[in-house]
Amino acid sequence: MSTGTIPLPRTGAVPLGSRGIRGARRWGALIILALAQLVVVLDGTIVNIALPQAQLALGLTDGQRQWVVTAYALAFGALLLLGGRIADYWGRKRTYMVGMIGFGAASVFGGLAQNATELIAARGLQGVFAALLAPAALALLTVSFPGGKERNTAFAVFGTVAGTGAAVGLLLGGVLTEFADWRWCLLVNVVFVLAGVIGGFLFLRESRADGENRYDLAGALTVTAGLGSLVYGFSLAEYGWARLDTIGFVVLGVALLVAFVVIESRVAQPLLPLRVITDRVRGGAMLLQAISGSAMIGGTVYLAFHLQIVLGFTPLVAGVASLPMTIVIMLCAPVLTRLLPVIGPRPMMIVGPLIAAAGLLYLSRITPGGDYFVEVLPGLVLLGLGMANLFIPMQNLALARVAPQDAGVASAAANSAMQIGGSIGLSVFTAFYAAAVATVDVTDGPSQLAAFTAGYSATFLAAAVVMAAGSVVAFFMIRGTKEHLLPSGDGGPAVHLG
């Protein structure tokens, strides 16, 4: 599950074909672009429910199982900034079409996968094409609805689809896994892709940013390789933190990210202008994006395993049982949005992570024979309440006081932080899971369930510690009056990814 923003087109550039689309064609474009957004978001969660079945079918190890989730989030997050640049420079409709077709092909590849390597590679390719599709879709929406009440309506529809995509993924994943086969959680994308491609030809117009445009390829290569090396190094911690390969890949990842910072400080058109993240408040908000991503993606993936493997829920029931957190977030969002200008973002961003940490701590108390309504549901409600208090102000601060020309890249950086945080979090939590499982002497079925439960409990506890650290980050980095932190009129629209 993911929450964040995707990049807006660069403000100040004169887009080719930016006069918009009139009449029914414009609303057809909205439907198609909202569908594209739904595909990107639901694929972050639809596979979670199918993982236990996929693990049995393909003989995945626990490490390979987490990479089915990590590969998508890592590729998506690492390449999102570059995807936004490609859409602006190469053409938004063209990028959309390539992203949509490529996403469909990767989904078919994953649905037909015969081993772990093929499935993980397919998920990574899905992430690559999602990084093209998502920013192109939002940019096309902005061009199609350049202003007025219709623009507000379009963004409301688009945002609602994005906000409900994760829940749709959980439910659809449960239905397909239970009544068809886990492979259909990937193959179902073909239906969305066919509609998106046909609709793209019928309703979308080409647009791109004019002027001298250069790709920051050196920056793209170093940040992608750096993040990949870092996540891979952490995933090896499952076999030991002191191993040479674990330390080597982590150190290599850090070195490449340092090189990325050096490159961005010197190139004329950087992939990520450093001024976007060096602001203390904005940098703190993006660090909190990464922390919340680690808990949401890294921590709650194991919830699906506990519900199905330990509690014995069917995939559909497990999907429904995972929804309370999302429902609480959606119910709290309107209230907290009205409350934000009254009390300011700082109190919500300090208290929110603590409530979420309490929810995760509650979940860490699970037992092999526990009752869902006693041991799981209260934790999910607390987690949803805490995340809602964090998400609402965090999205605003990620774009507050940013220069107009940096609005798109700031939005993309915030979402990238969420995805990368989830990738790193899942890798680290898997190491805690493996260590906890190894402490249980497995002699029969019940003891194996006890071992699994110990592992899941360890991941929830680790995620709780990370979320509590987020409150400390907010206390020291989110400083200033509410008027200073949220000046009127700044930021522009931010669209949530789920």
TrEMBL record:
Its main location: membrane. GO terms for molecular function: transmembrane transporter activity. The chain crosses the membrane at residues 27-47, 67-84, 96-114, 120-143, 155-176, 182-203, 215-234, 246-263, 284-305, 311-336, 348-366, 372-392, 413-436, 456-478. CDD domains: MFS_MMR_MDR_like. Keywords: Cell membrane, Membrane, Transmembrane, Transmembrane helix, Transport. GO terms for cellular component: plasma membrane. The keyword Transferase does not apply. Residues 29-482 form the Major facilitator superfamily (MFS) profile domain. It is found in: Cell membrane. It is a multi-pass membrane protein. Pfam families: MFS_1. This is Putative MFS-type transporter EfpA. It comes from Microbacterium lemovicicum. The gene is efpA_3.
